[in-house]
Design a protein that fits this description.
About 30% of the residues lie in helices and about 25% in strands. By secondary structure, it is of the alpha+beta class. Strands 7, 8, 9, 10, 11, 12, 13, 14 and 15 form a nine-stranded mixed beta sheet that branches. The model has no long low-confidence stretch (mean pLDDT about 95). The structure holds 3-[O-phosphonopyridoxyl]--amino-benzoic acid (PXG). 3-[O-phosphonopyridoxyl]--amino-benzoic acid binds near residues 188 and 246.
Length: about 300
C-alpha cells in the first residue's frame, strides 16, 4: 500500500503528492514545519508541536487557514490512514503558490502537507558509543535577523554548519552565536552536565524552543537533577562532566568528544543515560492516541 499524504485538505498517494515549483516554500524557503514522533500508537507532545507550529506561523505572518483543532484531527487521521504505530510525522506549511517575486501577498493560500512514515532513527550503537562533534565556525543566525524560535523552512544556516561537520568526518556540529555563546546543534538542542546540574542555553540566544529540551527540563526533578538555563561557551563544553543533544528524532544522544577533546571520561555519562531512560519511559506513557479504544489492544 502506498503512503497516503495529506495535501491541502485531501489525502493522496505518495506518487501524486506534488507541490508547484511556484510554491514559495520551494522558491524561498518561505514556510514553517514540525517534526513529531508516534510511539506505540500515540502522538507524543502533539499539542506542544501544534502550539509551536502556529507560533512559527505568527512569527512569519503566515495565515494557516486550518484551525488548530482541524490540524490536529488531520495529523491523527494521516497516521491512522497509514496504519502506523511507530512513526515520524512531518508537518509543513509553506507560503503557497505565487509568482517569481518574494512578495508573500502574491501567494493566496498556504500549502499544507502532512507526511507520516516509518521512522529511521540512530542505531542503538550510537547511544552506547556517543557522538563526536565540533564547534562550527558558522554562527547561528542572530535572533534579530531570523529568530531561532521560528521553525522555518530556511535551514541554510544549520546546513552550512552541517557541511563543516561532514567535511571533518564528525557526527554533529554545535553552533555558537556571535558573542561566542553556545546555542544549539544543527537539529538538536544542547545540554551540559555539571554535577547534578543540567545546563542549557536560553533560547533568546537563537535556539529553537525544543519540545525534547522542555521535556528534559520537566523530567529533571524526578531524577534528582536541577535543570537551568545558562550562558555557556566552548570552554564550558570542554570541561563539562557530560554533554548531550536533544531532539525529536535523536531523543537524548550522548556527546563524547568536542573538537577532538574527550568530554568527561570520553564515554556516554551516567546522567545522560538516566535522562535517556526517563525520556524513553515517558514516550511510552503519554501521547494522543491515534486508534479508537477497541483497537488499542491490537496496537
Ligand atoms: N534545534 C533545531 C535547530 C532543530 O531543528 C531542535 C533544536 C530540537 O527540537 P525538538 O522540538 O525536536 O526537540 C530541532 C529539531 C529530526 C529533525 O528528525 C528535527 C528538526 C529538524 C529536522 C529534523 O529530529 N528540528
Amino acid at each position: 500500500m502506498s503512503l497516503e499524504i495529506y495535501l491541502n485538505g485531501d489525502w493522496v498517494a505518495k506518487e501524486n503528492a506534488k507541490v508547484s515549483i511556484w510554491d514559495h516554500g520551494f522558491l524561498y524557503g518561505d514556510g514553517i514545519f514540525e517534526g513529531i514522533r508516534v510511539y506505540g500508537g500515540r502522538i507524543f507532545k502533539l499539542d506542544e508541536h501544534l502550539e509551536r507550529l502556529y507560533a512559527s506561523a505568527k512569527g512569519i505572518d503566515l495565515a494557516i487557514l486550518l484551525s488548530k483543532g482541524k490540524m490536529k484531527e488531520s495529523v491523527i487521521e494521516t497516521v491512522r490512514r497509514n496504519q502506523l504505530t511507530e512513526a515520524y510525522i512531518r508537518l509543513i506549511v509553506s507560503r503557497g503558490t505565487g509568482d517569481l517575486g518574494i512578495d508573500p501577498r502574491k501567494c493566496r493560500e498556504s500549502t499544507v502537507v502532512i507526511m507520516a512514515d516509518k521512522i529511521s532513527v540512530y542505531p542503538e550503537e550510537t547511544y552506547r558509543r556517543g557522538l563526536k562533534v565540533m564547534i562550527a565556525s558558522t554562527r547561528r543566525n542572530p535572533p534579530d535577523s531570523l529568530n531561532g524560535r521560528i521553525k522555518s523552512l530556511n535551514y541554510l544556516n544549520n546546513i552550512l554548519a552541517k557541511i563543516e561537520q561532514i567535511k571533518q568526518g564528525l557526527d554533529e556540529a554545535i553552533m555558537l552565536n556571535h558573542d561566542g555563546y553556545l546555542v544549539e546543534g544543527t537539529v538538536e538542542n544542547v545540554f551540559v552536565v555539571k554535577g547534578k546540574k543540567l545546563l542549557t542555553p536560553p533560547c533568546y540566544l537563537g535556539a529553537l524552543e525544543g519540545i525534547t529540551r522542555q521535556t528534559v527540563i520537566d523530567l529533571a526533578p524526578q531524577l534528582g537533577l536541577v535543570a537551568e538555563e545558562a550562558l555557556l561557551n566552548s570552554h564550558d563544553l570542554y570541561i563539562a562532566d557530560e554533554c548531550f543533544l536533544t531532539g525529536t528524532g535523536a531523543e537524548i544522544v550522548p556527546v563524547i568528544e568536542v573538537d577532538g577533546r574527550g568530554v568527561g571520561d570520553g564515554k556516554p555519562g551516567k546522567v545522560t543515560l538516566a535522562v535517556l531512560e526517563a525520556y524513553r519511559a515517558l514516550t511510552r506513557q503519554i501521547g494522543v492516541p491515534v486508534y479508537p479504544k477497541e483497537q488499542a489492544k491490537a496496537v
